[in-house]
Design goal:
It is globular, with a radius of gyration of 28 Å. Helices cover about 40% and strands about 20% of the residues. With about 700 residues, it is of the alpha+beta class. Bound molecules: 2-(butylsulfanyl)adenosine.
Length: about 700
Amino acid sequence: MIDELRKLAVEDMFDLDAAVELKNLAREIAEHDRAYHRDDAPKISDAEYDVLRRRNDAIEARFPHLARPDSPSKKVGAAPATGYEKVTHAKPMLSLGDVFSEQEVAEFLAKIRRFLKLGEDAAVELVAEPKIDGVSVSLRYEGGVFVQGATRGDSVTGENITKNLRTISDIPKQIFGSDVPSILEVRGEVYMRRDALAALNVRQQANGGNVFANPRNAAAGSLRQLDTSITAQRPLSMFAYAWGETSATIAPTQWMFLQRLKEWGFETNPNVRLCHSLEEILACYAQIERVRGDLPYDIDGLVYKVNSVELQERLAFVSRSPRWAIAHKFSAEQVMTKLWEINVQVGRTGSLTPVAELEPVAVGGVLVSRATLHNEDYITEKDIRVGDTVLIQRAGDVIPQVVEVVADERTSDSRPYDFPDTCPDCGSQAVRKEGEAKRRCTGGLVCPAQAIERLKHFVSRNAFDIEGLGGKHMKTFYHRELVRSPADIFWLNRRAARIFELEGWGEKSIANLLNAIDLRRKISLERFIYALGIPQVGQATARLMAKHYLEVGNLLKEMQVATVPGSQAQAELVDFMELDGIGPAVVGEIRDFFSEPFNFNAVRDLVNLLDIQEFIPPDETSSPIAGKTVVFTGGLETMSRGEAKAKAEALGAKVAGSVSKKTDYVVEGADAGSKARKARELGLSVLTENEWLALIA
Ligand code: IVH
């Protein structure tokens, strides 16, 4: 196809030919540039290279609107023409675990004490802060000068919105003082006050612009403006509450950190409290919940943070949230509305979820017209009928749910709902296994709904994150046989002409899509594994697998054998996962997934097509235990097993559950049993707890 297109004269081209050819040329020229400059090994003559460049220039001259951001005619490193430049955060911007009940808050505290090996009643100071409902941002200061501001993005990479953040008066453009670290990242929440939102909406309505459903959408929409002069007109505020990279320690506690921020000219929330016990934080929660409506801005709960920075560092992180902080959310607003119909949705593993189609109603500032009914028992137990008036709620970002029927409002024409026993999409039997709440479509690989959901998961934000290929489009692409397995997505460049025939697609949107796909030909191993959509394998498990296998080649090789029950590879996988609390059921799902030839082949096709990056353990360079395999055995004195393991991993080591020839260190605590014995038999180095602490100090 490239060859045919290459023969086409520029004068005879239509837009689509031009777009495809520009893309091909961009890629080829970049390859030749690399071969020439980086590898000193040109693959074509200078004259041939010039022909390619001249063709690129000629097409751009005739179709200037199709010129690509990565065009060879533009300087290297030029910022993308649309959207924002990406920023990799020096320290990831993590999120918080959510809890809703006092019981869960008590567990959070108990877990901290266990992890730190403190007594059950030991005092742990906590700072309680209102959880602002806005957009989190990171502000970077170098030598006290504000140099860069970014959104959180996917926590590792965000968007550079420095110019827009400069328009916010709460954000100091320069900070003064002898104690300002030369590198300082301040994190916080950009938000819009409620009165400011009301005034903005009046103006928007008068000008025929967007009216915002809630302050958070307004803040996000305003920050994302490409035209900074628009952001400047939006009344945005900011509270600072955390730090990212810093060249020096700022304060020994969160409380003192907040004082320092104030001195430097940041706004911090006035309702922050220093607490010393569970009772105190819960009292603080109750008090703030009472005055919540009187605050000039939206909050959706409280955040509790361990005050001592030293303890924070020991507690560290589990997957994407800190162990030292948690969000205690307010219970959700509940609203009445009419339930008109019940539909059944098929998930990527075939599970059937009943969904209520509702009379649209605003809940927590968002218009809701559908809500989940969870499963068939939920409908029966709550006696929910079509035509009923129901109470619905939205809790945080969770999908709205039907809470209960408003019995007094039931009319005689309400009808009980019969849950289907066949899949609404492919008609296969839908069966319910013992012990499972959900009925599942047995259509497996022949069920289009399941296939489409799997593909949607594959391109979703935490997976391949391919913009412009969301729900509706994937469905069409599937039914038009443009995409049937994930690898097909990466062949779409050859099918541009067919996409063009579809409604709603033009040259520009096709070029954007192909561009977005190209950006993902290189991907991290953990994202790749997560994208496969193996049942029960979420981001945390995917990361663990990446850590275990390091390279996709190892994963594939092992999976060929690990699918055999009882094999050594499977036993190792089970061991490894169990260490992190991942049970054999998940390992069973992984095995089942890879034993299905369709899945195995789909993965192999992707491996051949993509550049899947090797997993690099963090802190590789500086730590003496980086890349080493460590086994802990027996009880440790100064820390719990969980902390020991987390610490070792943070320093780049791999922690294994059993001793083998591959083990580098065995750390022996009190009453160590067979593992220490085996280690000695194998002649491995066995360390006492103190020796271990000295090694990692
Ligand atoms: S601390 C590692 N403090 O809540 C902890 N977050 O679910 C970093 N948020 O992304 C966050 N108010 O957007 C923290 N006082 C507060 C907050 C707060 C609002 C948001 C923030 C974060 C999200 C976590």
